[in-house]
Amino acid sequence: MANHATSPGTARPEAIATVSPFPAIAPGHHLAPVAIGAPGSEQKIVFVPCPDWCATNHVSNWVHFLEDVDHTGDEFAVHVPSFFNEGKPVYSLTAAVGSDSMSTDPRMRAAHVIVGDEGSVDAYLTPDMARTTANDLRKLADKLDEAARTARLHNQHVEAVA
Ligand SMILES: [Zn+2]
């Protein structure tokens, strides 16, 4: 390995004193530009640690205050249609990972899972709660498949005897 003369151990003390320490960034984070204030001359851009899974553009999604910055991952959505409501789903369920690093609530500061249905209230789940809910939704998906098979067989039987 090359012996670097500029390693901290050999740098002159007066040179070290002029180096301003770079803020430590937790693993899995990067510094992202964040717009504070409405677009215009008063808007400021600051850099904050942002989790690598965060899909939010913090410049276009500007906030009034730094405390309002929260991080959200890519959203996945399941839409449930109805043949009585063509073109518009009756239910929409979304899931994404989130973190509100400035929150006073440690559960919101930690990464958590947000499940929404386009209503005004979202569900906030710990990773354990999300795993349990995911298992239940898998059972619901199996039940949906089973119900679809039963309905298809019923319809084929009705057609056959008609
Ligand atoms: Zn972010």
Features of this protein?
binds zinc ion, 5-stranded antiparallel beta sheet, DUF6907, alpha+beta, elongated, 27% helix, 162 residues, 7 strands
Distance between the termini: 84 Å
Helical run tally: 3
Radius of gyration: 26 Å
Structural class: alpha+beta
The ordered H/E elements are HEEEEEHEEH
The distinct ligands, each listed once, are:
zinc ion
Fraction in helix: 25-40%
Overall number of strands: 7
Q: Major sheet, described briefly?
A: 5 strands, antiparallel
Molecular shape: elongated
How much β-strand is present in the residues? 15-25%
Average of pLDDT: 89
Low-confidence stretches: 1-7
Structural notes for this entry:
The chain has about 160 residues and is of the alpha+beta class. The chain has a domain at about 130-160. It is built from three helices and seven strands; from the N terminus they run H-E-E-E-E-E-H-E-E-H. It has helices at about 15, 105-110, 125-160, and strands spanning about 30-35, 45-50, 70, 75-80, 90-100, 110-115, 125. The radius of gyration is 26 Å and the shape is elongated. The termini are far apart. Mean pLDDT is about 90; it is low at about 1-5. The structure holds zinc ion. Zinc ion binds near residues 32, 54 and 58. The site of zinc ion has 6 residues, from loops. InterPro entries: DUF6907.
